[in-house]
Design brief:
five-stranded mixed beta sheet; binds magnesium ion; binds adenosine-5'-diphosphate; alpha+beta; Heat Shock Protein 90
């Protein structure tokens, strides 16, 4: 779906492309975008570019809202140390939070987050579900943690 992503683009540009691409789909599903992109988020690991991973993560989180949340609003917010995707839907179930959801999307998000040094979180709020990617700005810039075992094979998300 995100075939035209260029890894050297700024993340804000990538998120904007994603917004343009998904806006129609969200409108068809009766969901409004609340877009709050401020500072350019910076992942601690810059090589290879984290942007493709970040764009895929955001795309999967938005797709999950469309598929599962029954929401009317999705809020995408970013600053220099985090990205959040929140919805006002039914809220993720305990079973799904425990990894018994059956799909591979969240597994893929976890894998990609580890790859770029982002801390991934997902949980229920009073009003829906929130996905958080937090970047530890104290981490040294450079390559991913070599201790991470990561397959270069791309998953489904
Ligand atoms: N925003 C959301 N609102 C409600 N439930 C969600 C949301 N995101 C994920 N889920 C739940 O988590 C499960 C696992 O998601 P995922 O791993 O992406 O698999 P899939 O989308 O293929 O079902 C979903 O099946 C759904 O039950
Ligand atoms: Mg999914």
């Amino acid at each position: 779906m995100l075939v035209s992503v260029e890894t050297q683009d700024s993340l804000v540009t990538l998120l904007g492309m994603l917004r343009t691409r998904l806006e129609g789909l969200l409108a068809d599903n009766g969901i409004a975008f609340d877009w709050q992109i401020g500072e350019e988020p910076r992942a601690p690991f810059s090589r290879p570019s984290p942007n493709l991973h970040l764009a895929r993560i955001v795309q999967e989180a938005i797709t999950n809202v469309i598929k599962h949340a029954d929401a009317t609003t999705i809020t995408v917010a970013a600053n220099d140390h985090s990205i959040t995707i929140a919805d006002n839907g039914r809220g993720i179930s305990s079973a799904a939070l425990d990894g018994r959801g059956g799909g591979h999307g969240i597994t893929g998000i976890r894998r990609r987050s580890a790859r770029i040094g982002a801390e991934f979180g997902i949980g229920r709020t009073d009003t829906g579900t929130i996905v958080t990617l937090a970047f530890n700005m104290d981490a040294p810039a450079g390559s991913p943690d070599p201790a991470l075992s990561y397959s270069s094979a791309q998953g489904p998300c």
